[in-house]
Amino acid sequence: MFVVGVNWNEYKPEYDIISNARCITNCLAPLAKVINDRFGIVEGLMTTVHSITITQETVDGPSSKYLRGGRAASFNIIPSSTKAVMAVGKVLPTLNGKLTGMSFSVPTVDVLVVDLTVRLERASTYDEKQKATIQRVRTRRLEEQNKVFAARKMCLVPDQNCLTPVLIRLYQKYMNLKRGKLVNHLTSIIKKPDPGLRKSGN
Question: Where is the Glyceraldehyde 3-phosphate dehydrogenase catalytic domain (predicted)?
């Protein structure tokens, strides 16, 4: 599992199956990494507001998981648990077990908001946290992405998910393999004419 700005530099070309985690993890993990690297996180609580997903009910009905999960997605704010903090622990092992979280599904088509409240090892001001975050984004993100992915001859679009080129490369590799098999098959047909044509004199 890889998240841009967190552990994407651990990607290796021999990985054929990769995961770019989910939207909440991509929102939470980079921020948590910056804060943990600069100030140290003792423990934290994450609260996320998420738009409607395909797994929710369109109208009120029974739910096998929990009672609130059966409420109509378009008319309710539905609290639920989230596994995003577990995913953060996978891409940031130093934070494994230190974060907990909850999620609220809201009746909107597109939105994701994450609130992270943490207890730090070292005291800091709001300005220090803000400066650390801005500096990280401006000076390291594109620089490190270009350094790692350009070395592997992958195209890179600023402010776009860096693993997208990886997925494109894997898809192209798969399609080229299929195309190569088709070409070989057609070549074998051309080299070996149908015996039936010879018998008929055509």
Answer: 28-133
Residues 26/91, Cβ–Cβ less than 8 Å = no
Separation of alpha carbons 111 and 109, rounded Å: 7
The pLDDT tens digits of the residues spanning 152-165 come to 444 333 334 444 55
Which three-class secondary structure state does DSSP give residue 125? coil
With bands split at pLDDT 50, 70 and 90, how would you rate the model's confidence at 186?
Answer: low
In order of their start, the domains of the chain are 8-153 (3.30.360.10)
User: What global pTM score does this model have?
Assistant: 0.59
As a three-state string, the secondary structure of 66-109 is: CHHHHCECCCCCEEECCCHHHHHHHHCHHHCCCEEEEEEECCCC
Q: Looking at 23, 27, 155, 162, which residue is catalytic?
A: 23
Active-site residue, 23 included:
yes
Task: Return the higher-pLDDT residue of 142 and 86.
Answer: 86
The more confidently predicted of residues 110 and 176 is 110
